[in-house]
Write a structure and sequence with these properties.
The protein is an alpha+beta fold and 269 residues long. It has seven helices and nine strands. Helix 4 packs across helix 5.
Length: 269
């Protein structure tokens, strides 16, 4: 169902609005120096949600943190976040689906090329990088299984995780995923709570159009090298190799196969 909101823009009804989804939803924004529940404004964010939010802001706003794009989103308040139960649980997937759809609907209104959605989970605590990688892909698979009931893959990217033009898609929008965990060997990917950051692909294309992508990329890699002494060996440009190899932050083997499968649909690649 489509309707027109107060701004005159098209707005689609959230197909992930079940009782289970509403119970586990926590879509929040940082407004006027406090965290507020956007979809449920009469509900206060939980103390844990506020703790995780404050911890994430502190990490990104550190002068040593390398991703200047993330800094811009946090500084401007052009981000949304949610706190969920165990990664890949039925409850967490339901709540995250509701919130990520809301973000896709709201993102254009944020009027910024540095918007992002942050999904943090209470667990599980990964024992190592491979363990976190398994949880990350299981969660993305569960999200896609729900999304495929309502939406096709973003036609601007490939759905085959082995294809160089692959990007994860939800609600018809392509996202580059950045995984953070306590087990990460990369310091800017190390965070106490397992976290998935959803960055819309169209923002990278917009940066390229403006001639800002390469300078931004260079600045990030320089800061990463200063902080850790190296840049992540997983880094590559879109279209060179599948970006799936970068999502979990682990340096994967050459023969690594992505444990993800998109539901069949007509692919343009």
């Amino acid at each position: 169902m489509t309707k027109v909101n107060s701004d005159g823009n098209l707005q689609h009804s959230n197909p992930f609005d079940s009782d289970l989804a509403r119970t586990n939803s926590s879509y929040a924004a940082f407004q006027q120096n406090k965290l507020v529940r956007v979809l449920d404004p009469d509900v206060l964010p939980s103390p844990l949600t506020q703790l995780v939010h404050d911890s994430f802001r502190a990490l990104v706003l550190s002068s040593r943190f390398s991703c200047v794009g993330a800094k811009a989103a946090i500084h401007r308040g052009d981000y949304r976040m949610g706190m969920y139960g165990e990664m890949n649980s039925i409850d967490a997937t339901a709540g995250l689906s509701r919130d990520l759809f809301a973000f896709v609907e709201e993102q254009n209104k944020l009027n910024s090329i540095f918007t992002t959605f942050i999904a943090s989970f209470v667990g599980p605590y990964a024992t190592d990088e491979e363990d976190f990688e398994r949880h990350l892909w299981a969660q993305l698979q569960a999200l896609h299984d729900q999304d495929a009931l309502y939406h096709t893959w973003d036609s601007s990217v490939a759905s085959n995780p082995e294809h160089p033009n692959f990007s994860f898609s939800f609600a018809g929008r392509a996202f580059f995923i950045v995984g953070l965990s306590p087990a990460s060997s990369r310091w800017t990917r190390r965070f106490a709570w397992p976290t998935l950051i959803f960055n819309a692909h169209y923002q990278f294309e917009r940066l390229r159009e403006l001639g800002k992508y390469k300078p931004l990329q260079k600045a990030i890699r320089l800061r990463e090298n200063v902080l850790q002494g190296t840049i992540s060996p997983t880094l590559s440009d879109f279209g060179q190799v599948s970006e799936a190899r970068q999502y979990a932050g682990r340096t994967v083997e050459q023969e690594w196969k992505c444990p993800f499968s998109a539901h069949p649909h007509e692919e343009r690649f």
